[in-house]
Amino acid sequence: MSAVLIDGKKIAEEIRSELAGKVSALRTAGVVPGLAVILVGENPASVSYVTAKEKACEEIGIQSFETRFPENVAESVLLEKIAACNRDPKVHGILVQLPLPRHIDERRVIGAIDPSKDVDGFTPINLGRMLLEEPCYIPCTPLGIIELLKRSGVPTNGARAVVVGRSNIVGKPLANLLIRKSVNATVTVCHTGTRDLAAHVKEADIVIACAGKPGLVSIDMIKPGACIIDVGVNRVPDPTKKKGYRLCGDVDFEEASKVAGWITPVPGGVGPMTITMLLSNTIDAAARISDIALQ
Ligand code: NAP
Known about the structure:
By secondary structure, the protein is of the alpha/beta class. The protein has 10 helices and 11 strands.
């Protein structure tokens, strides 16, 4: 069997062209959607994520306001910046790039974001609302994965889904979205305490690998015809590359594509969808805050 490639870049482009219409409707009504981007330190992965997010904003007509702080910034300075963004009428969404340095209490910083501007969906208010299926901002990576499944025609109703990873930003919210009636999967969440990962993955119609461990999901673990969504982004040393490394996911892509029914590549799978959902949430925030109904 040769898997259908789920082209996240292409699907993301389709969604972005739909979103462009919403941005122009907002602009016509005198509202320029604005995203405040806060970056602490110079972690190369964080810098590249922020750069990609800002480029995507610019392309679609969202204004981004970047603030960079040095690694040793005081938590109080970050909290003041967030309070200023909460008050700023030009800012509709606030993004604090994670992870933050160890001396900063990530929960306190995220918790300081006004939930109506929390376009990453990381505040306790939005996560609680998500659980209750109330209007809210849903974390971008899980939201993007559900959209990928829908737009690729992967059957989810009654499907067995295995999520490998239980982080607050990917695994936990994703498991929650998968059990919504509108998706209707039966979900198992695996983690480092799982006794026999392979046995769980083998049962799955949909496998979502979000552990950040290259090669964690191998061909022998995959049920023929299963859908494999690879969230992992890992830098592995590669002297043949100019940068000295290459990116790979948590799944052995070459081998897994021989048995899977669908598969996402890394890069070019989940990543572009994460950014697109950030754009979508920011546009929604601009509309809600400005009390404009979008089609
Ligand atoms: P994280 O906070 O480090 O969480 C990793 C999760 O995987 C944890 O729950 C951990 O279990 C579990 N895990 C680790 N090793 C495992 C193993 N051997 N077997 C089973 N479970 C294992 O990471 P994250 O922030 O969720 O990110 C996960 C990966 O996705 C990373 O590679 C990250 O770069 C990538 N990512 C990609 C995007 C994108 O847009 N493409 C967005 C976000 C994240 P415990 O809880 O037991 O420790």
